[in-house]
Amino acid sequence: MNQIAPRDGTDGLYDRVRHLVPEMEWETFVEDIRAIEVLKRERNAVILAHNYQTPEIFHCVSDIRGDSLALAREAQNTDADVIVMAGVHFMAETAKMLNPHSTVLIPDLKAGCSLADSITGADVRLLRQRYPGVPVVTYVNTSAEVKAESDICCTSGNAKRVVESLGTDRVIMIPDEYLARNIEAETGIRMITWAGHCEVHERFTPGEIERMRADHPGLVVLAHPECPPEVVAVSDFSGSTAMMDDYVRDHKGGRILLVTECSMSDNLAVRYPQTEFIRPCNMCPHMKRITLANIRQSLENMTHEVTLDPAMASRGRRAVERMLAI
Fold first, then answer.
1. What is the pLDDT of residues 50-76, one digit of tens each?
2. Which residues lie below 8 Å from residue 169, measured CB to CB, with a gap of 6+?
3. What's the pLDDT score for residue 4?
4. Average pLDDT over residues 110-133
5. Is 171 exposed, middle or buried (0-12, 13-18, 19+ CB in 10 A)?
6. Binding-site sequence positions for iminosuccinate
7. What DSSP line would sit under 39-95, residue for residue?
8. Which pTM value belongs to this model?
9. Which spans in the chain are helix H?
């Protein structure tokens, strides 16, 4: 078969993802990629992409890439007029809280999160009434309304540091029950939890991991702390997607299983081709709502703009800024 030559300077981009994206599929992406690059210059826009985005977004049009913590930090520091969040809605809200003067766009309003949907601001107020004086640590995978009712936020990458910084023997840690239990096991601090779960990570089981170890000798298992504690217990390492990236970088080669959303393995495979990634494909349906086509439409039409009540945003921003200061 004749090789299809990518057009208009996109050949260098295709080289990044050549072993993941077939040539025929790439040809369907080229026009959108070219248009997005033009629109970014015209709008003074940046695209923030979470680690769970597909390779053609993550490696070919995004300007800032990373986990929730990295994206929050960069959203706070960018001087772009427009921020396009190639992620889910709570991430766009966090970007708006931290950079209120920029226009923040989310390409698909239905790009949600099972954790964010599991709890409301009213729920947090009831928890405070039930456990007076106990600090509330809220995972960033929550709405702006929930963050506004919290003392401090955390991510999966800094949750242990945040909890230990409070100097207390009890913490209300919401909404991810499994993250809270995993941090409780690490710190010995009692966690008052909420029954929220990530619909991707809750599906992994110890049996699945043991079967993969049997099928792939020498396998090293890296589990996200949103996984059930019994899954973390049979893994070799547990950490955020950024911590997984660091682990793969520092332990070059070998066979690795990332117990997280499947695009993470694809994106790391671009940077670390010497590593063999074993891919269980638990896919986040919300992340996959973001596409090149709707990123382009978002920039063309300036949709969909994320707006927040100023008072609520101010309270939520304090909780996020307290986290970033640790």
1. 999 999 999 999 999 999 889 999 999
2. 189, 190
3. 36
4. 98
5. buried
6. 50, 68, 139-141, 156, 224-226, 241
7. HHHHHTEEEEEETTS-HHHHTTT-SEEE-HHHHHHHHHH---SEEEEES-HHHHHHH
8. 0.93
9. 11-17, 23-43, 55-58, 68-77, 89-98, 114-117, 121-130, 144-148, 159-165, 177-187, 206-215, 229-233, 241-250, 263-271, 292-301, 310-324
Residue in this structure with the two tokens 């970088």, named with its chain if needed: 249
Min mean pLDDT across 108-112, 230-234, 279-283 is at 279-283
Sign (positive or negative) of CA dihedral 167, 173, 179, 181? positive
Residue ranges of domains in the chain, CATH in brackets? 11-112+287-301 (3.40.50.10800), 114-197 (3.40.50.10800), 201-278 (3.40.50.10800)
The annotated binding site is made up of: 50, 68, 113, 139-141, 156, 198, 224-226, 241, 284
Which residues does the annotation place in the binding site for [4Fe-4S] cluster?
A: 113, 198, 284
